Structures are given as C-alpha cells and as structure tokens.
Amino acid sequence: MHNRKVKLFILIPDGVSLRNFAYTSFYKIAIDRGHEVVFWNNTPFDLEAFGFSQERIIKPKLHWLTTILKSARLRVELDCFGKRTQDPVYKSYVFPLSRSGWKNGLKAFLISLAVFFLNSEKGLAWLRKMIPILEQRTAYYKACKTILKQHQPDLVYCCSQRSVMAIAPLQAAKSLGIHTGCFVYSWDNLPKATLDVTADYYHVWSNHMKLELLFYYPFVESNQVVVTGTPQFEPHYNTDILQTKEMFYQENNLNLGVTYLCYSGDDVTTSPKDPLYLRDVAKAIRYLNTKGHTLGLIFRRCPVDFTNRYDAVIEAYNDVIVPIQPIWKKLGGAWDTILPLPEDVTLLSNLALHTAAVINLGSSMVFDFAIHQKPCLYMNYNYFNDANVPEQGVYVYDYVHFRSKPTDAVVIWLNHPNDIATSIAALLEHPHPTVSAANLWYEKINEHPANFASTRIWDSIETIIKI
C-alpha cells in the first residue's frame, strides 16, 4: 500500500485504448495498489456494464477550424520531416483530400490554403500553438473543465496521442494544474505525424520509440518521455486465459486432425486487394493437402473491417478456410466506434498459441505470434495493376517503422503466389530461424520483460504524482 490513493482519469478515445487499458492487468494493478481509476469514456461502449467506473464525455464538439488546421498541420509536419531528413518516404503518408460535395470541396480548399501559407517550421509551430487555443474556446472544453473540477483527479491520462478529441480535456486539465500523461499507442505512429495532443509526460513502447519522439518533436524534453512498453501484448503471458488445444479446437469447431495457419486480414486502406492474398494462401494450402498434408486456414479479419469483400473467397475455398471473427462490436460508422469485447483478448492469445504461423501484409501480428515462438509470413507482392497480375514488392515495407527490423530474416517473405506452398511446407518441417530474429525485433520495439508494461506505467504515474 502506498502513502495515498491516486485518482486517475483515463481518457479512452477508441477501441484500441479500451483493449490496452481496460482488458489488461493495468486496471487490476491500480486496484491492488489502492488507487482509483475512472475511465473518461469517449466511446459508445458502456464500461459500467463490465464493472468499471466511468465518466461519459457527452457530445464532444471540436472548434470548426480545428479539423482544418489539424489536417494542414499533418501535411506541413510530414513535409518538414521530409526536409529535415531528405527522405521522400514521408510523402507516402499523405492521403489525398476528399473533394466530393461542396462541404468537402470547401474544406479541402481551406486545408490546401493553410498548407500553402504555413508550409515551414515556423508555420508548423504556429499551427501547433493555435489548435489548443481554438479548442479552449469551445463549450466542450468548458464541460471538461467542469467535470475535472467536480472529480479533482491527480492525473488525466490519454490512451492515444492521435486523438484530436483529447485536446480539449487535456488542455482543461492543464488549466487546473492537473498533471497530464499520454500513451503513444502504436509502433508506427510517430513518423506519420500523429502527435495530435501534447502532455506533461509521454509513455512509449521502447527506447527506439523514445528517440523517435525526441527526433520528430524537438519541443518534447527527454525527461518528459518514459519507456514503459505497451500493455497490448500482456495477455499473451497470462496463462490463466490460455486454453488447451482440445478446448480451443472444440470451442471454434476445428478439426483436431488438422494443422491450422492463421491469415490475419488488413484494413481496406493498407491492403485494398487483401481478398486476393487470402485466395492465394488458400489455393496453396489446398494444393499442399493434395500432396499429403492436412492443413487448414483460420481467417481472422481486421477487427474494424466489416465489409463483405472476403465472402466470395471464403465460399470458394470453404474446404480450407475457417473464419473466426474477432469479438468486436460495431456501435457506429467510424473505425473508432468499433470496440473490442474482453473475450477477444483471450481469442487472439489462443489463436497465436494453437496455429502454426501467421500470414499477412506488414502487421504487428508478427509480435503476437513471436511471443508463442511462431513464424510470420509477410505478403511481399501486390495487385495494384488493373489486370490483377502479381508484381513483387509492397510500398508499406518502405515505411519508417519497418526500418527498425534488425535483419530482413525476421519473417518469411512471400514474393510471389508460387512461393507460398513451398514456404509453408518448409516451416512445417522444422522450427523456422525467423522466429528468433522476430523476437529480437520485438525486444527492440517493446521494452522487456514485456508482461510488466502496466507495472512500469503505474510506477511512472506514482513518480509523477510523487507518492
């Protein structure tokens, strides 16, 4: 027990944050240490139904100029990153503006105008200063301030640095002298200019990420950044939720005589032709089964992809593909209103434990499976041409976060559909050397021991509060 109880307001802007901070050991550690946690909930999910204390954010509304300046800031920032590094990769993070309809057309015009006049380090500094000022003029900011005065937490902790909706609550906390903290929630975020909020302290996955944060955002001081690791992978180490193979197979209607691989789907933006990859893998497995193997393919779609784009492939290869849906709930139209249920944490851990490998396009699932000593196969060809003819290489592997790989041998590269069957057969014959390389990569991008991330976050919070 510590000297006094900490009251922590955890700002939950989306489903990923919910998974990281409500469904891991983070909450249990808080209770064990005698602290009080209130989830400041900006999702449509009712956290009280799961036994958590929550304060709802009611109808948050940004200043009308914030969205325009935020989009301009992102473009200017990426341009500045490119100039600082003389690296063209940052241009690939910029997506075209939507101009359909007069409202989008006007918005795109205003963003382009702001970029034209403010495209410099000086302009970037002005944008970064202006956005919080605008948010402090909103009714949303005033409402946040009222809630904070009422609850008087010791610290407001934002679970995602890329939530523009979190600016007003954090600014309100700062105005009242309340400590603020922020978690950088994904391994690829910082080079993409996604630091939408500023806080007194930042928690990052690794020393590698800390150096990135200080490089891209020179206004952040080294003593503001604490390396904690991410709670994201903690459930894999929780033996209480790991099932026996028999139990997992029975629960998901799998055949005990079959060895399954996992195909992990990507979102539509990252992998628009993803169903063709699923088809190619299913075709290779079907071929291997004619050669004496007994294989199946579990398909786990991207949790925020509710499209029917895979249906035809699943139907055509129903002798091979078994879909196991992520246990997420769709409560709205936007990606951040699709929220995980606690059961999905268990499902993913057991999926990694009881399948032979994971196959996908450039996802961090490589680390989920490396924890269970399972290899990852990355699709390394594309169907970007109209004829749907495979061409080697995918642009996502040029992104900055892939440069953290200690070696190219961290995954098995599938450079052509014809490589798939051979690669799968080889990994089934003997333990694959890429697993140890993948674990080295995992240790580089996430502080180890990885199952103590929540503990390190709480240690840092207690240091900030000085208890």
UniProtKB/TrEMBL annotation:
This is UDP-glycosyltransferase. It comes from Gelidibacter salicanalis. The lineage of its organism: Bacteria, Pseudomonadati, Bacteroidota, Flavobacteriia, Flavobacteriales. It comes from the Bacteria. GO terms for molecular function: transferase activity. Keywords: Transferase.
